[in-house]
Amino acid sequence: MKSVHVAIIGGGYGGIRAAEHLANNSRVSITLIDKNPYHYMQAEVYDFIANKVDMSQVMIDLPSLCKSFELVKFVCEEVNAIDTKSNTLSTPTQNIQYDYLIIATGSRTYFPDFIKGLREHAHGVKSIPAALDFKQQFEKALLNRIEAQTRGCDVEPFNIVIGGAGLSGVEIAAEMAAYANRFYQNGNFGCRGIDVYLIDAYESILFGMDSFLIDSAYERLIKLGVHVWHNNRISEVRENAILLDNGKTLDFEFMIFTGGIAASTITQYLGFETNQKGHLVIDEMLNIPSHDNIYAIGDITQALDENGKFIPPTAQLAERGAEHVAKNILRSLSGKPKRTFRFKNQGVMIALGGEYGAGLLPGGIKVKGYLAYLIKKAIFWMYTAPLRRRGTIGKRR
Is the pLDDT of residue 322 over 60? Predict the structure, then answer.
């Protein structure tokens, strides 16, 4: 029987899941390509920047993971071109031929050009270097603030601004507030603590999500001392201050922007159709239109449901898309018709600072508090434990 080679660009949630589901078939060889030698679990970034976990706990080594499979090769390079006529992709050092291609390079923080100064003065956290940069600068600023207390408690306000009250913004705001409270309690520092501001452009946080999640998250944020500003749009960001469209100004020490995502920059060079944020347009099979052997999954795509409604980008969406694409490739190898992708949300879990969370489970079950926190951690463990076991196997080879 014919053997095929599948190239996967991107070692994130989708890319890894696709490799896992294809690697068990002896007719399929795989090359996984990523510019970084690690998988960054960006969905857990709130724990990392708040010092609850170290860097190793939000990373998986890709070379070791790939070595654990018999027919998976890892290439640590950037892809700079795809030739669809010859079914070849190019990196700075080599050309790689493929029978099937899966593009899963994820997303980056979207800094709208119409907000003056945003890109220059706000942090993103969608990469390890960006999150680490924020974390280190934040801790240094905390030390400087403690040292400034030699002059008494008459020190400048220490404000952290989170721009964007979607899932990432809410989780980061909650964890930063919990961390700040814990920091000042543990050290018994008597002076004014840290204030966290969550700037929300809509009439509610988590706009469009279930009312239970919205209410639970808002209640928790207020209890943690987060200042939630609804219906406020950022019009300009200066070095240490934001200006809002209603004329208000807020000074800050640090700002994290989570107000949107754009596709990774690779889409600018591929020649495929994209939307205004660079997301690849895909069909109902998750194929690039007119390219039956090229698929795209996860944050890099403009994913729509059967009603044409945009599906919010999540790790869950990337993983379900990867599983679907893997099945369609195997169906094609067996001469069977491909199937249409239908995304069924398996629930949502939100971390809300400390050992607290809220979530919706399959069947409409609602949970919040410590139980929700434990469930979210259990989900994370079930995702990472098999990957770490495979990485251990690969490291020995």
Answer: yes
